[in-house]
Amino acid sequence: MRDIRSSFAGRQAEALPSALAGVVIALQAWLVLAHVAWRDEAQAYLLATQPRLSDLFASLHYEGHPALWHLLLRGAALIAPSLVALKLVQLPIALATDWIIWFRAPFGPWLRLSLLTSYFLLFEYGVIARSYGLGALLLFAFLALRASGWRWAILALMANVSLHLMLLSGVLVATPFLGDRRETWPRIDARFIAGFALWTAACVAALATMWPAPDARPAVSPLPEALMNLMMALHWASASVLPGLRLWGIGLAAPASLWLGAAAAVLGAAALASRPRHAAIWLGFYGVILSLSTLVYPAYGRHVGLWTLLLVALLWIAAEDHGEKPGLVARAWIAALSLAGLIFSAGALTAPFSGGDMAAQWLISNRLDRRMIAAYPGWNGIDLSARLDAPYFNLQTGRVAKFETWNYRAEPREDSRALAALAREAAKTLGGELLIYSEADSDSLRAIGATPLVEFPRTQNGERKAFYKLAIRDGAS
Question: How far, CA to CA in Å, does 190 sit from each of 147, 177, 187, 194?
Fold first, then answer.
């Protein structure tokens, strides 16, 4: 009788979080379907849908990303030849990630529920259709199947998601060899050697795919820029602790955000304090991501979120292999991320993430969708190109394009004379009057005489866009 009562009590304890998990998974699906893609997502789609596969691989040498995500998008575009292809890929990825966490994670129901609603899993990797969501799915698939032969295939795929995920896959390869006792190390047998060879070959293929083209923007930052990148990395690192304070330019500013970003290292070590070697692994990865962000590519939320995933992975391994429950620091950190995820998702239900749809619809309603639009900075044109299937004029490079090729410094040009010269060149081919898509508060465009035509509301990613008109007659504005 006591066993029956205990079993019934256990089912009752699971009932509420299970019901809430169903609600969260439904919310996840709705967020993906309602999401308005922004330029990072649209850029990947435009690259993936180039007429020839060779063109895609040539473009990746300017992106710094392997091909796996783009190949998935290319396949999805055969079914839905529009930005809907992004949802077609992202929705099953998000739902599969949720399924693995809920049914396979060795944690209690409330902690699993907190993971489902945590900012990075619910939104950054769950809604925004970028390769990092695929990386999160592969990470949890690896954790669920790490005792099987599939682990090496999963790690090989992870290495072809992004450079950051390749580094994370390397951490997962090394982690079993950093155990407390040598007898717990994996056996180096024929299966291990074959799997390791597969993963190594996948890493080599990924590096070959994303190796910078000769004319790509330099990958290694000079010292002054590297110091700025370090501060930016710490600034964004604060988002891994409390996303609501930093993400998309909201809230906490330097120097407070720099201290909070540095405190992430302390929190990670404290969350894994019961297993010092795991804490050392986590701190090593924190340092690698920070160094990569300083020397190569500035950090953003999608990058710093990876060390929160590694934290969960190490907690998972400790729970499965040693029966250890996550401590107070780890649970408090995940709870904070959960609260941030719910708040950010509530915002996503009330405002579009990107203004791309609004801008394209304005052009269509004013019968301007077939007109060549200028974009400043050039990356703004991506949003229009993906929706209107039309090229744009990049006012930074003076080139007509359908997507960005990163062989120039993409930051806005401060020299108004150089910008005015490019505008005059554009006017020669665009009828003497430019329609420019840019930020609503672009002082650079106002300085060369451009006047706002329409301004769009601020979107959830913190951006506010506008169309400007610039009339140029006889070479003068």
Answer: 16, 17, 9, 6
